[in-house]
Amino acid sequence: MLSDYVTGVVWSSDGKTLAASSAAGEVILWQGNNSISILQEPIESSIDCLSFSHDGKYLAAGGQNGQVKIWYLPTKELVTTLENAPAWVDQLAWSCSCHQLAFSLGRSVQVWDLDTQAVVTTLNFEASSVFSLAWHPIAAYLAIAGYQGVKIWCGEDWHDDPYLLSIPSASQAIAWSPDGKYLACGNLDQTLAVVEWGNPHPWVMRGFPGKVRSLAWSNLKTVLGAPLLAAASTQSAIVWEKQWQEADGWEAWELEGHTETVTAIAFSPDRFLLASASEDGRVCLWDSAEELVQILSGADDGFSCLAWQPQGQFLAAGGQNGELLIWAKSIAGQGFG
Predict the structure, then answer these.
(1) pLDDT tens digits, residue range 217-274?
(2) pTM for the complete prediction?
(3) Three-state secondary structure of 174-203
(4) Count of H helices and E strands in the chain?
(5) Which long-range contacts (CB under 8 A, 24 or more apart) does 26-31 make?
(6) Domains of the chain (ranges plus CATH)?
(7) Which one of 68, 163, 170, 228 has the largest count of C-beta atoms within 10 Å of its C-beta?
(8) Which residues is 305 bridged to in the sheet?
């Protein structure tokens, strides 16, 4: 469906629109009933990150040429193009509560306000290029990851010094839990750090077979009072469950169903159903994040990304040859569940 490697798939908050991008620079929308809208045809540089605004009205895309483009979805009109060349914009995310957009520019992150059409602040990471960024789901905090750890700024006063979570190597992937209580950091030294917000002492999990590539929290909490955390490392997904006693930390189990690198993981929003996509051309579905119950296919040379619809009725995945596959929960024998 796309002409090159699918670099991202993301759903609007109401679940009515799926956006996908490619290494050829394409940006398309799927809005059900095989309705496809092309926002951007192939160009000479890749689109590497996509994000919907919290209200689903705007879609932002960033990529290799340094541009950040913003479309107004009701009319599909391109309303803003921010020029940042020669920087490469490979991280981008809207605030969960307002029209502020954060995007990486090498060793810094700019926060831009759609309503005022102005840059609010530039946050300098300094130690390295920015590897990942994530807005807090409730409060006005922005976490930025790179070498030597994660810095967390408060949007109520960007001039305040950030909180620093020190990591000996570098944090490649970060993710807030849906309730904002925990921040997980996947690191290049084959460790995973989890911070409970307000607690200065993180849990550090070791023994991963390789660097932690991606992270996913469940929306639901277990009987032990915390969501599950999944981490992708080499050919495996590892699931962590917080224990009752603080001293016991988190208990882990490994999901073995792939033969090549796991590229993306995500929990269904309404249950403990975990999806893992891999370069082996399979999307595995794990019931209760434990039992392999279904294998989805359709990208022979491997999957690159995946995303659940927020209402849990669809699962979308992108392939390394441009495939865009969407499975529906309601189609017996052809979907999932």
Answers:
(1) 999 999 999 999 999 988 899 999 999 887 788 999 999 999 999 999 999 999 999 9
(2) 0.95
(3) EEECCCCCEEEEEECCCCEEEEECCCCCCE
(4) 0, 29
(5) 26/2, 27/59, 27/61, 27/69, 27/71, 28/1, 28/2, 28/324, 29/59, 29/73, 29/76, 30/316, 30/324, 30/326
(6) 228-337 (2.130.10.10)
(7) 228
(8) 318
